[in-house]
Amino acid sequence: PLLGDPNFHRTVVYMLEHSDDGALGLVLNRPTHEHQIAGLEAWMDELSDPQVIFDGGPVQADTLIAIASRSLPAGSPDDAEQWGEGFSPLDHGLGTVDLTRRPGEIVDGIKTLRVFRGYSGWGPGQLEMELNEGSWLALASDPGDLFTPNPLGLWRNVMRRSGGRAALLADAPHDLSWN
């Protein structure tokens, strides 16, 4: 709420990695109008609705990161052996997809897929500092957040379900000085 950077105004960022070396996340609620990427046409048919590329953040806009969810049998470990080649597991049935492979080689078992152009990144200690000053709200994710068919309504939905004072932001005007 206090961050003045327009790249992050009313964004929902899914954190992929957070360590002493920094943090990396993807903006989940910025679909673009980009429907095709040369050389990746076959992957575009596998995308979840809306079938567009998402703006993952302001860092390295030439980088593509693909996230997929898979159906794993109950009690299966969430490890690389279960995912097979072409996947790198994250957690809770999510993983990154190697877009240099052909979809037919690894698409079996993919429930949902989203491709992000660029990412959001923080240097060592930067995210912690921004959290401490109140620039970000750290909220639990919901399994449906990453692949919601309504990404433009995601920020409002996340704020509402958070409850408390944060829920009040869901209906606040874009510019709080208008309130």
Major sheet, described briefly? 7 strands, mixed
What is the total tally of β strands?
7
| Termini gap | 14 Å
Along the chain, the helix and strand elements come as: EEHEEHEEHEHHH
Return the average pLDDT rounded to an integer: 86
Portion of residues in helices?
10-25%
Calculate Rg over CA atoms. 17 Å
Percent strand = 25-35%
Output the number of helix runs: 6
| Net shape | globular
Compile the SSE list and pairings:
Blueprint: E1 13-19, E2 22-27, H1 41-44, E3 54-55, E4 59-70, H2 80-83, E5 87-89, E6 94-97, H3 103-106, E7 110-122, H4 126-132, H5 154-162, H6 164-168
Parallel strand pairs: 3-7
Antiparallel strand pairs: 1-2, 2-7, 4-6, 4-7, 5-6
Could you please describe the fold and organization of this structure?
By secondary structure, the protein is of the alpha+beta class. Strand 1 (13-19) and strand 2 form a beta hairpin. The model has no long low-confidence stretch (mean pLDDT 86). Strands 1, 2, 3, 4, 5, 6 and 7 form a seven-stranded mixed beta sheet that branches. The chain has six helices and seven strands, in the order ββαββαββαβααα.
